Amino acid sequence: MQNALQTGPSPTSAPSPKTAAWLSVVPGLGQLYNRRYIKGGILLLLALSLAASLGPWTAGGLQGLVTLGEDPNVDDSRTLLTEGILAALLSVVLLCAYGLNIRDAWRDAVRRREGERIPSVRQAFHDSYDKGFPYFVVVPSFILLAMVVIFPLLFMVALAFTNYSLYNSPPAKLLDWVGWANFKELFVNPLWTQSLLSVLSWTVVWTLVATTLQIALAMLLAVLVNDSRIRFKKLIRTVLILPWAVPSFMTVLVFAAMFNDTFGAINTQLLAPFGIQIPWLTDAGWARTAIILIQVWLGFPYVFTLFTGVLQSISKDWYEAADVDGGSRWQKFRFITLPHVLFATAPLLIMQYSFNFNNFNLIFLFNKGGPPVPGQSAGATDILISWVYNLTFTDNNYKMAAAISIIMGIVVAAFALYQFRRTRSFREEGY
């Protein structure tokens, strides 16, 4: 009677999950042990093929990543670094697949021991397609992301720990791993320390002042145009949006000519009658002022459009109720208009700050980060992104440019994480 009531194999005859897992050290053997012959054969054949075709290349790539070459007449450290990073990424993918192979053998053994029916290959294929369809869709995008984003990022991080510069550049010379020496140089060498502190402080000031001014101007204009006493609203809004419609690089080039110290229209036409001559491009303070004014001009139309849409969606009943309670214009703006506008546009306003933090086009097109500052490797209006560009393409100082890029990425990531953690959607996920 007891044997008749058993629904599965006895514990002594059932496969051992530990044995299946240990056999899966050679992919496919654990599946063969679980009597998944077709699946085990495919995995074993695939593992042998990958080991024969990609094994030597992966091992050579990882070795080149460690040594970065031994003979400059034969090896190019940049090529070895590239192949090494690709080999490391491929190794991570293969290790994940290897772990899934062991986990699959373990689970099949557990299911057989518990008396569950093991699906056929065809049924397993259909089940995996139904349950894993999102993964089939995500994998191609993930591969593209790895090649377009992750690989360049890893390459840049690797350069920050080498001695790649104008005076130590392949293929004439080989690169060497220098550890944290480049980061130490940034905070020990007075030239680099002063330049980093100056550029970082100006980047923060530039981001906060320029973005806050453009948001304030957009708010002021949006509230004024939305007033019921204003006529020709469509015409006024169209005119205010025009700076956004013109390509920004053209606008910056025009302003660069207008702010020119010698022949610019601002000095020769607007200020000359008053006997005023301002060194817009040669004085650090005036150059920074000009750049902030230009960014306010370029940035306020987009924010104005956002605010205008939100203002039109606010119910008039709120304002009528405030009139009944005797609320002033300032109180209606403070307690009705401003909260509604900021609540609806807060994520986009945060993006404005992030955009201006890395606003390379304006700095480069206006004066390429100038004027120069004695005792520094950066110009007076250089922000972090433009400084990195000059170090890379002008000075060929790749190692320091990579180190500064890492610091810049950490700052931006910390700011973004802080802002996301304050959002309601992030808190609702339970993080």
UniProtKB/TrEMBL annotation:
TM annotation in the entry: 41-60, 80-102, 135-161, 199-223, 235-259, 290-314, 335-355, 400-418
Pfam families cross-referenced by the UniProt entry: BPD_transp_1
Entry superkingdom: Bacteria
UniProt KW Transport keyword: yes
Keywords: Cell membrane, Membrane, Sugar transport, Transmembrane, Transmembrane helix, Transport
A GO term from the CC aspect: maltose transport complex
GO biological process, one term: maltodextrin transmembrane transport
Membrane topology field: Multi-pass membrane protein
Compartment list: Cell membrane
All residue ranges annotated as the ABC transmembrane type-1 domain in the record: 200-419
Principal subcellular localization: membrane
Entry GO MF terms: ABC-type maltose transporter activity
InterPro entries found in the cross-reference section: MetI-like (IPR000515), MetI-like_sf (IPR035906)
CDD domains documented for this protein: TM_PBP2 (cd06261)
UniProt function note: Part of the ABC transporter complex MalEFGK involved in maltose/maltodextrin import. Probably responsible for the translocation of the substrate across the membrane.
Family: Belongs to the binding-protein-dependent transport system permease family. MalFG subfamily.
Protein name per the record: Maltose/maltodextrin transport system permease protein
Organism of provenance: Paenibacillus albicereus
